[in-house]
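[Discussion] Sanity-checking designs against the backbone

I'm trying to build intuition for which residues belong where. Below is a structure token string of 197 positions. I'd appreciate it if someone posts a full sequence so I can compare it with mine line by line.
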């Protein structure tokens, strides 16, 4: 994002799930920070009350497909249908605005998939902004220790950074260590946190 301002953007992928997502929401609330949650549609359907909490806390949401599909291995038609299924799940619970944020799982999508999703549509389907990142915490990686995870973020954050964490059981140990420490670090450095819109 814009590098002129000391603004950074926390994003959380793969939720909502019990325990981890509510924990993230508690931490964000404690620091009065807004973030962006790229939700997996099937998790939204499984855990509607946790999804509702993300909305109630006024964070942004984004589409992360219904089944966390790898675009490289998926036919474009199937992929688009899966994104639309996720969109239906997000909107069935979301009484406000349809999200036009999309992040491809694994950062992997074919050109045909991206160009379809980001194209202007005549109907009420959104034309998606494709949101990638510049800072990957590596929180989900079993080979990454909690302190390495924290350093990954601290050493790479800059004005306008979009930072990826995961509200996922796989990431829990690293996330619980790195997230509050990173927030403290960034606030002390004068960064402001914003949600994507
Ligand atoms: Zn993901």
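Best answer:
Here's mine. Compare freely.
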């Amino acid at each position: 994002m814009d590098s002129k301002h000391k603004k950074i953007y926390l994003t959380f992928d793969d939720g909502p799930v019990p325990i981890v997502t509510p924990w993230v929401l508690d931490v964000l609330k404690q620091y009065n920070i807004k973030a962006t949650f790229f939700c997996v549609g099937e998790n939204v359907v499984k855990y509607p009350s946790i999804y509702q909490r993300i909305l109630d806390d006024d964070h942004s949401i984004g589409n992360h497909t219904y089944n966390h599909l790898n675009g490289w291995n998926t036919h474009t038609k199937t992929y688009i249908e899966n994104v639309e299924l996720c969109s239906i799940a997000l909107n069935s619970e979301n009484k406000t605005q349809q999200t036009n944020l999309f992040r491809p799982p694994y950062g992997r999508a074919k050109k045909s998939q991206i160009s379809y999703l980001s194209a202007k549509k005549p109907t009420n389907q959104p034309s998606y902004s494709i949101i990638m990142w510049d800072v990957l915490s590596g929180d989900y990686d079993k080979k990454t220790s909690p302190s390495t995870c924290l350093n990954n973020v601290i050493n790479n954050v800059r004005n306008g950074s979009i930072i990826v964490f995961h509200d996922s059981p796989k990431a829990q140990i690293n996330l619980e260590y790195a997230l509050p420490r990173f927030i403290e670090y960034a606030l002390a450095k004068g960064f402001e946190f914003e949600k994507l819109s």
